[in-house]
Amino acid sequence: MLGWTSAQAQDFGWKATLSPVATQGWHRVLLPASVTGRLQAGLEDLRLYGTDGKEVPYLLQTEEPVQYRTLFKPYQILRYTRQPGGLSELLIHNPEQRSINNISLLIGNAEVRKTVALSGSDNQQDWYVLKEQDVLYAIKNEKQTAEVKLLDFPLSKYRYFRLQLNDSASAPLNILKAGYYDTYSEAGKYTRIPIQHFSRKDSTDKTTYLSLDFGQTVHPEQLVFYISAPQLYYREGKVILGERTDGSRRQRKRRRRNNTHLIFEPFTLHSNAPAQVNLPRQKVERLVIQLQNEDNPPLRIDSMQVLQLNRYAVAQLQPNKAYTLRFGDEDVEAPRYDLQFFQDSIPTNLPIVTVQQITLLKEQKPKSQGSKMLMWAVIGVVAIGLGYMTLRLLKDMDKKKKV
């Protein structure tokens, strides 16, 4: 009962049901444009409730436009043997003869100090020194049973690398892997924003105007054009995001006369690059796009997509339970959950839960009716005051005339 009381105390305007989950554990609830567009700018008014009406803590996650990831790629260890005289030898294969200047060794924890030497060869017969001596210090990882140690050396591309370790004072190290770290970029994941109405006009002023209406407030972050003709093109344009509302009334009029009151994002489309435009995140209900054609024929645009970066509510969910989102309260503050201190403990690659149905809550109506009544009451008081002042002024003028 306490959960329902808490939900009703907050004046949410919308409710969304979630698809059922099959397993118990962490899930990512994908927030579509129909949800994020009705939230506060920072998504502060989002709440997740279970079947019993109790609030379920969650963490917000947002995709990055470009993510840089580091991946450990192992080399093949041909052999790791201990030679007579207390010398261990690790032979690493570099079949593609990549130009490298370091090798990362994954070594089991050991409180020890080892001297090592590195050499390279293309036939395992003739060996050439790369590093005469280096030292591997204590391998001690407080969180895991193994530690990565980096051994750097002059850039080379031998087919084989031989690492010799001095084991005269202790047993050999437990070398689990040898490899390198490769950094690569990965594009963020986006969700499509439905376009309710689309119109196009190729004007005589050599400009193409595209109008996109969404039917509700949304936060577009990327536009994708599908252009079929001409084969070669280079067009400048801009996306109009809205009008400036700050400043005095006189300043707004001046900006309007100078046509500088519009908020827009310039861009260039050309056939040698993907036809994509990234936008700053801003709440809009409509976008107007202008393309300057100069003396060229208008672009043949087969279709367009409007996208937003994926945003998730990450929470622990259980099967055979119904979950709902509530949102759309401009006054409520962001929730404070303990989960914010344990973000690193949540696993990655979680199953995704989707929003099934969005409904308007009845609780929203009394708020709007109350605000209208208050507005009319204020207008009435002001009108009565003005009438009283006008009557007093007329009486004073009559008295002066009689005198």
From TrEMBL:
Keywords (A to Z) from UniProt: Membrane, Transmembrane, Transmembrane helix
Keyword Transmembrane helix: yes
Chain ranges passing through the membrane: 373-394
Protein name (database record): DUF3999 domain-containing protein
